[in-house]
Amino acid sequence: MNFMNRIYSIIKVANSINWKKLKDCEGYVNYDIVERLIALTNTNKGTRKENYWKLDNQIVVQSGLSEVAVYVLPFLNEFIKISSYRDYLLDLLFEIIEGNDISSNGSYVETSATIHNTPFVYFTKSENTELNRVTAIIDDYIKKQYKTYIDLLFEVKTIYELNVLLDILLGFNDKVSKMYLKTIYPKVKKISTESFKYLLNKYEEELLE
Is 109 exposed, middle or buried (0-12, 13-18, 19+ CB in 10 A)? Predict the structure, then answer.
């Protein structure tokens, strides 16, 4: 599947979700969230940055996650695989992955998410599904995507992207992802520039221990 067809298939699924029934940090979503997600892949850095901040300020505020973060995550995950511009996609992914779901009153942010497996794994809200903590859903989803993020070590193009990606990879602590990372890491270092290799060396001990 070529790039444009892949983008179209992702957008088609994103447009099938009733975003206005989901809550962000300010209330129910009342803007075109799909348009902002697409803008994170734009060739213009200013456009990417502007839409990153629009999403960041709605989805996760001061590390506090909202319900809609669960539903946005799979689309960020799909875009990161194919986009040539990953800086702000990685930034938003990091904010979501590292966020917390404890609200200001001490209660947990929860949602009732139904899992769909085709054409890729994504979530829709269902009143017939039991409530789960937002972080539990996010952690379970990301853990299963470990190959996507480890393989991105071959794809990132800037020191900034590599730095954010390595920070994300620090969260993969299970045995399976560690074993895969140990097979990939030396291959990445072998083909890296000196500046990339310096950063890879800096993270290596903590990532592979």
Answer: buried
